[in-house]
Amino acid sequence: MQMLYDSDSFVVLHLKPDLGLPTQVTLADGETPAPALPRHGFEIVDKRSGKEVYLDGSWAEMFQLIIQEWQRESPSEEEVEDILERYAQLAQNPVLIH
Q1: 93-94 and 10-15 as β-strands: parallel, antiparallel, unpaired?
Q2: What is the pLDDT of residue 93?
Q3: Which residues does 52 contact at the CB level (< 8 Å), separation at least 6?
Q4: pLDDT value at position 72?
Q5: DSSP strands (E only) in 1-98
Q6: N or C: which end of the chain has fewer CB within 10 A?
Q7: How high is the pLDDT of residue 76?
Q8: pLDDT in 10s for each residue of the chain, 98 residues
Q9: What residues contact residue 40 under an 8 Å CB cut-off, 6+ apart?
Q10: CB atoms within 10 A of CB 81
Q11: Distance between CA 28 and CA 96 in Å, rounded?
Q12: 70: helix, coil or strand?
C-alpha cells in the first residue's frame, strides 16, 4: 500500500497485490482450479463524509491514467480536489478503521 495524496479533505492510497499470492485458486465447487489474478486498486477516502470508494479493474486503470497526467502536468491542489470530489460521489462505504 502506498499513500499517493493526503489533504484535509481526501486520502488516496494505491493498493498493490501481494506478489506472494498463489498463482491458482479453487472455485466454489471445491474442485475446479482457476488462475488467481492479482489486481491493483485505488482507495479514495473522503475525510469530510467519512466514506471511501475502492477502484479496481477498468476504474483503476482509468484513475491511473489521471495520476500519470498529474505527474506530467503538476495540477494545483484545487484541480486535484475537483477530480477526487467526482470520484467521492461514488463513495458508499463508511470508513471504519484506517
Answers
A1: unpaired
A2: 76
A3: 43, 44, 45, 46, 91, 93, 94, 95
A4: 93
A5: 2-6, 10-15, 24-26, 33-35, 41-46, 51-56, 93-94
A6: N
A7: 93
A8: 789 999 999 999 998 876 555 566 666 677 777 665 566 899 999 999 999 999 988 899 999 999 999 999 999 999 999 999 999 998 887 777 55
A9: 14, 15, 16, 17, 56, 60
A10: 16
A11: 29
A12: helix
**What CA–CA distances, in Å, run from 52 to 7, 60, 66, 70, 76?**
15, 14, 18, 21, 23
Tell me which amino acid residue 52 is.
E
The pLDDT of residue 19: 58
The pair phi, psi for residue 48, each rounded to 5°, is -70, -40
Question: 26-62 burial, b if ≥16 CB within 10 A, otherwise e?
Answer: eeeeeeeeeeeeeeebbbbbbbeeebbbbbeeeebee
Per-residue cell: 85: 470530489
pLDDT at site 79: 95
